[in-house]
């Protein structure tokens, strides 16, 4: 009986193996259904030395671009083709991270060596079962690594929000590198499955060639170069090359009532068509982001756009000068550092194509409220926050490096208890408890997707959509003004506490006492808000 039992067991095992071979081999094209995560296609493989698009037909399915979105940088692009769409490795490399990440749900970070430099690609929003690689694993360009999902903070929630968030980081995502426009790389990629993923190559494994990302700068009829310095000519030509929707770029003029930038020939004005429309605001945002991302390359001094004085690490609201033009709502003003005067038709070299890095310390938020990555300050535990307050809190938290979404949430709980109609005994109103005089300069009407669409003082002081981003801007303005005093030692203390103290007691009081004023309310205020913020941090 024992021998018969063994024979039966061997036959049974043989049948199991045969069935397994049949299932794996398929033979009729149905093997795709058996791929991990229910993938639609095995795809995979590109010619040696080529990059792979992260999804088939990826560039035809981009729903959100790299750049400013809702006043904050979006550090990647979104590709939406439906849950389960296969995701492929962009280039040969090593998986640096694979698994859970705040805001992403599941993510993958792959490190590549390209022209001897570290470059990372990031893939986000996969479902828990949609990641098919492990940390430390070596992958090939065009290899199926994941499936598209809607995990993490996406809008709309559920399958309708399914998309791949894809980033490229020069210098490494986990090594303090810089996010760059993925299109500079994807424009040189090929379709996954377009070639073998093996074969001879002249390069070491994991090495390919970086895109030049540069364009030769030529004169343009939209831009008058008369009496301009070299830095201004380079800047104006770069804007003309990168932004075909811009009709006019101004430069020199003989006099200026507010500054000598234009008479000296070291400033350009990028005029924005339809500046009052959402499309116009988006174009101005894109121009601003391009200049910020290439600040050192162009030797920029400062930017003014929509009444905001902008530097890489700070933004502050300027005084009201009385008209849309004087307040820079219809154009982006770019001042450059001094350089020699340009000769007619001067050769000024090349410039980055399509934009570059976002502000190094700025927060990030995408147009669907994605909070992409685990180490910035927009991740938010929204369990006890009204649903229609979450997006404005994230917009406010991405205004500058001095604030975060959890800090904004803690401030709102302290100020109003998340009550839109709160009014203080002193006359402060709304979610962020603005005084009418402060609202006149800090408030503004905001669109539903977080863009400023009205001048200072517009909007509804009681509407979270308008009031909460205003709180973020106001806090950042305070931080920007206080920075020189802190650096000089004129004001002493923790920068966050000093910023909060100014919000509560006024900047004059902080300056008067050289730190947090000795008021019991303010002393408690600067301690309790950071404590409250902790419960809104993403776990």
Automatic annotation (TrEMBL):
According to the entry, every stretch annotated as the Transglycosylase SLT domain falls at: 402-516
Q: Which CDD domains match?
A: LT-like, M23_peptidase
> Which regions span the lipid bilayer?
none
Name this protein carries in UniProt: Peptidase M23
Which organism was this protein described from? Corynebacterium stationis
Report the superkingdom from the record: Bacteria
Specify the M23ase beta-sheet core domain's residue ranges: 73-176
Q: Where is this region: Disordered?
A: 148-167, 189-223, 342-361
Q: Which PANTHER family match?
A: MUREIN HYDROLASE ACTIVATOR ENVC, PEPTIDASE-RELATED
Q: Which residues form the ARB-07466-like C-terminal domain?
A: 225-329
Which Pfam family, giving just one, matches this sequence? Peptidase_M23
Citing just one GO molecular function, the answer is: metalloendopeptidase activity
Please give the InterPro entries that the UniProt record associates with this protein: ARB_07466-like_C, Cell_wall_metabolism_enzyme, Dup_hybrid_motif, Lysozyme-like_dom_sf, M23ase_b-sheet_dom, Transglycosylase_SLT_dom_1
Give the signal peptide as a residue range, or say none if absent.
none
């Amino acid at each position: 009986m024992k021998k018969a039992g063994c024979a039966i067991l061997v036959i049974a095992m043989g049948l199991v193996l045969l069935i397994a071979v049949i299932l794996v081999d398929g033979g009729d094209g149905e093997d795709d259904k058996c791929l991990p995560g229910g993938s639609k296609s095995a795809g995979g493989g590109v010619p040696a030395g080529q990059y792979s698009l992260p999804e088939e037909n990826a560039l035809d399915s981009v729903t959100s671009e790299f750049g400013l979105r809702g006043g904050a940088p979006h550090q990647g692009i979104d590709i939406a083709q439906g849950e389960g769409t296969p995701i492929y490795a962009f280039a040969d490399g090593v998986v640096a991270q694979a698994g859970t990440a705040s805001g992403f749900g599941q993510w993958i970070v792959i490190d590549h060596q390209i022209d001897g430099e570290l470059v990372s690609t990031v893939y986000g929003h996969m479902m828990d079962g949609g990641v098919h690689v492990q940390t430390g694993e070596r992958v090939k360009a065009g290899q199926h690594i994941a499936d598209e999902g809607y995990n993490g903070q996406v809008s709309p929630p559920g399958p309708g929000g399914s998309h791949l968030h894809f980033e490229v980081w020069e210098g490494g995502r986990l090594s303090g590198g810089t996010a760059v426009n993925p299109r500079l790389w994807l424009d040189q990629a090929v379709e996954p499955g377009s070639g073998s993923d093996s074969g001879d190559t002249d390069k070491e494994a994991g090495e390919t060639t970086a895109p030049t990302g540069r364009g030769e700068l030529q004169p343009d009829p939209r831009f008058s170069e008369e009496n301009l310095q070299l830095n201004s000519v380079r800047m104006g030509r770069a804007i003309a090359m990168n932004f075909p929707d811009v009709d006019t770029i101004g430069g020199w003029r003989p006099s200026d009532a507010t500054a000598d930038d234009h008479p000296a020939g070291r400033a350009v004005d990028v005029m924005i068509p339809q500046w009052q429309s959402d499309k116009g605001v988006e174009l101005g945002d894109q121009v601003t982001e391009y200049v910020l991302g290439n600040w050192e390359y162009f030797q920029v001094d400062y930017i003014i756009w929509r009444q905001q004085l902008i530097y890489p690490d700070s933004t502050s609201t300027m005084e009201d000068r009385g008209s849309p033009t004087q307040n820079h709502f219809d154009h982006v003003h770019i001042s450059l550092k001094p350089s020699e005067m340009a000769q007619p038709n001067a050769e000024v070299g090349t410039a980055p194509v399509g934009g570059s890095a976002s502000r190094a310390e700025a927060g990030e938020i995408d147009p669907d409220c994605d909070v992409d990555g685990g180490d910035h300050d927009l991740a938010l535990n929204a369990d006890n926050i009204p649903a229609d307050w979450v997006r404005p809190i994230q917009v406010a938290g991405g205004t500058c490096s001095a604030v975060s979404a959890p800090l904004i949430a803690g401030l709102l709980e302290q100020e109003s208890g998340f009550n839109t109609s709160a009014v203080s005994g002193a006359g402060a109103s709304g979610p962020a408890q603005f005084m009418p005089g402060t609202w006149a300069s800090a408030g503004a009407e905001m669109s539903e997707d977080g863009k400023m669409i009205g001048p200072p003082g517009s909007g509804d002081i009681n509407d979270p959509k308008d009031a909460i981003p205003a709180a973020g801007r106001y806090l950042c303005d305070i931080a920007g003004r206080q920075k020189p005093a802190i650096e000089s030692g004129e004001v002493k203390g923790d920068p966050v506490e000093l910023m909060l103290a100014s919000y509560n007691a006024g900047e004059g009081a902080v300056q008067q006492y050289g730190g947090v004023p000795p008021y019991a309310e303010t002393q408690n205020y600067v301690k309790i808000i950071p404590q409250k913020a902790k419960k809104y941090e993403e776990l």
